[in-house]
Amino acid sequence: TMPKEPAVLRQNILDTTAAILACGIDPKKCFLFRQSLVPEHTELAWILGCLTNVPRLLRLPQWKMKRASQNSEGSVGLLTYPVLQAADILLYKSTHVPVGEDQVLHLELAQDIAQHFNKKYGEFFPVPKAILSEL
């Protein structure tokens, strides 16, 4: 949600890819792709954003903390980032999502959005469950 120099962003992508491969992820056994090249992520985020109310997003602790660190400013990107996270989860019809304690509320938002969408348009998205790690 913060502007990055294009060269730094490209290097971060390469570094992250190298780290994923170094952890033992085998691209012959799973899909490894650059999410920013999949337009459906942002397209679904727009649709889900139209179903999400602003007061709900304003209550998320991450918004409050990051906004405070930005001198009471806050970008639309920062505010709507949890909706993009929900789109990232729901696009693939994920049923279980590994999350840390700090992301539980964002997953709950994704669950609420999925339920709201399903109620309005019919059963389409599974409601994802959290897999909490002790680490």
Features:
135 residues, mainly alpha, Rossmann fold, 2 domains, two-stranded parallel ribbon, 56% helix, 6% strand, Trp-tRNA_synthetase, aminoacyl-trna synthetase, tryptophan-tRNA ligase activity
Describe the structure.
The chain has 135 residues and is mainly alpha-helical. It folds into 2 domains: 1-32; 35-132, Rossmann fold (3-Layer(aba) Sandwich). It contains 6 helices and 2 strands; from the N terminus they run αααααβαβ. It has a two-stranded parallel sheet with strand order 1-2. α2 (39-49) packs across α5 and α5 packs across α6. The longest helix has 18 residues, at 104-121. The radius of gyration is 16 Å and the shape is globular. One of its GO terms (biological process) is mitochondrial tryptophanyl-tRNA aminoacylation. It comes from Notiomystis cincta. Belongs to the class-I aminoacyl-tRNA synthetase family. InterPro entries: aa-tRNA-synth_Ic, Rossmann-like_a/b/a_fold, Trp-tRNA-ligase, Trp-tRNA_synthetase. One of its GO terms (molecular function) is tryptophan-tRNA ligase activity.
